[in-house]
Task: inverse folding
């Protein structure tokens, strides 16, 4: 039996709203792969890298809207006051 994780809900009709659970899942994925670096997941476990990205998508969808576009340069400028 496969474990159902919060990131598996990404393609459902309604999305999860528990940000803490999503953040905890990101930490769990990193710990399971004995790393603290997202890029290490590419080399160690591509499936977990995709799971990690799904969790990030869910968190970003809460902050920016489900179909929002994020301009990282604009965000950097806004967050760094430049």
Result:
């Amino acid at each position: 039996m496969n474990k159902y994780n919060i990131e598996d809900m990404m393609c459902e009709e309604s999305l999860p709203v528990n940000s803490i659970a999503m953040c905890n899942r990101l930490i769990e994925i990193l710990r399971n792969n004995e790393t603290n670096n997202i890029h290490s997941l590419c080399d160690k476990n591509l499936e977990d890298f995709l799971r990690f990205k799904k969790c990030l998508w869910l968190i970003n969808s809460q902050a920016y809207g489900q179909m929002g576009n994020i301009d990282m340069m604009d965000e950097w400028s806004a967050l760094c006051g430049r």
Notes: The mean pLDDT is 91. The longest helix spans residues 46-64.
